[in-house]
Design a protein that fits this description.
seven-stranded mixed β-sheet, 6 helices, alpha+beta, single chain, flat, three-stranded antiparallel β-sheet, about 30% helix
């Protein structure tokens, strides 16, 4: 049969609706540069030097204005990830409104791909906080590592609000053994957040668990929500007839990009 009633907007909406429930780290990063994301686009993020505070009275109540300079941090939307799958009859499935079964795995795969990319950027472009190559092999050492990350952010004048700590399951296991220190999310009335990977609060951090983070060794990344920029879009959704079967092909293109724009506000701690 010919595909006459395919509505790509409905499929796009079905995918995007499922993203928030599957994402863990991406909802906590900077999305303010996200607009019309297109493959190959480049977002130039401008930073301006901070003016110097001068003693007006000591300077004879005269002031010389600073000549400000600016720099640009490029954020490339250079990731293009596609998925394609067969549907027995796309018109019938769409008419019945039964998109959930078809889009659930697709959305989960796209989310995991994007989350892995963002975490990789944070590890590669953030600041290493384990210069002594310490080993995290106990709850006390994990807690000490978190304290070290907190001190580093404080010394870098990173705002106290909007701080997150993402850990992998090995690191999370040590923190969960320190129940007297980790305030659980459900105890604070945040059961919805708990389902999205939130373990609780510790030393001013909202603690997230993401198994996609460095699965080989206990690892933690402390960051401020403004420090990592991310843009994305489901750019294309289309359906066509499969020439080798009686099924229809649905395929989707996800374009995105990420960048650590404040390396001093992204601190990594991987066990030796």
């Amino acid at each position: 049969m010919a595909i006459t009633n395919f509505i790509p907007q409905i499929w796009s909406a079905a995918l995007l609706t499922r993203f928030p429930g599957s994402e863990i780290v991406i909802p906590t990063v900077n999305r303010s540069y996200e607009g019309e994301a297109r493959s190959g686009n480049r977002v130039n993020i401008t930073t301006i030097t901070t003016p110097t505070v001068k003693d007006y009275k000591a300077g004879g109540r005269k002031i010389t204005p600073d000549a400000l300079s600016d720099t640009q941090v490029p954020l490339l939307i250079d990731q293009e990830k596609a998925i394609a799958f067969l549907v027995d009859d796309v018109d019938r499935v769409q008419a019945a409104g039964s998109f959930d079964a078809v889009t659930a795995d697709a959305a989960r795969a796209l989310v995991e791909d994007a989350e892995s990319y963002v975490l990789g950027k944070m590890m590669a472009e953030g600041t290493d906080d384990n210069g002594d190559a310490s080993t995290v092999d106990s709850p006390s050492k994990a807690f000490d590592a978190v304290k070290s990350l907190r001190v580093s952010l404080a010394k870098a004048n990173v705002p106290a609000t909007g701080r997150y700590l993402v850990v992998n399951p090995d690191f999370a296991g040590f923190l969960l053994a320190e129940q007297s220190k980790l305030t659980s999310a459900d105890a604070a009335g945040s059961t919805g957040e708990l389902r999205n990977g939130v373990l609780g609060n510790l030393l001013g951090f909202t603690v997230l668990e993401q198994p996609l983070l460095n699965p080989t060794k206990p690892t933690a990344v402390a960051y401020h929500t403004s420090a990592v920029a991310y843009v994305n879009q489901i750019e294309r959704v289309e359906a066509l007839r499969d020439p080798e079967s009686f099924s229809d092909i649905v395929r989707m293109l996800h374009v995105y990009g990420a960048k650590v724009i404040r390396p001093s506000a992204v601190r990594t701690y991987a066990s030796a």
